[in-house]
Amino acid sequence: MKLRTSLSLAAVLFASTALAQTAEPTKNDPVPRPKAPEWTDADSNRDGYLEKDELIPYPGVLKNFEKIDTDGDGRISQDEYAAWRDHD
Q1: Strand pairing partners for 77?
Q2: Is the separation of the CB atoms in 35 and 58 below 8 Å?
Q3: pTM above threshold 0.70
Q4: CA torsion sign, 23 to 25 to 27 to 30?
Q5: Which pLDDT belongs to residue 39?
Q6: N or C: lower Cβ tally within 10 Å for the chain?
Q7: 54, 42 Cβ separation under 8 angstroms
Q8: Tens of pLDDT along 6-62?
Q9: Closest by alpha carbon to 37, among 18, 9, 56?
C-alpha cells in the first residue's frame, strides 16, 4: 500500500511539473525582447544605415522602426540602433 501511495504521489508531482513548464506566460513574466541582429548582419548593402527592407528578417526590430529612427530620416543610423539596443 505504501509503494502505491508513493507512486501515485510521484505521478502527481511529475504531471504538475510538466504542466507548469508548458503554461502560458502570465503578466508578471518578463516579456522577451526581440532578438537584435548584429549591425553587420542587418546592413546588407553596407551603406552604414538600416532601411526597412533590410530589416524584413528581423521583425522585432522592424516593428520598432519608427521608435528607433529618432531623427525621422527613414533609416536607422548606428548610433540610433545602439541607443535602442542598449536602452530598451
Answers
A1: 49
A2: yes
A3: no
A4: positive
A5: 80
A6: N
A7: yes
A8: 445 545 444 444 444 444 555 555 555 555 677 888 899 999 999 999 999 999 899
A9: 56
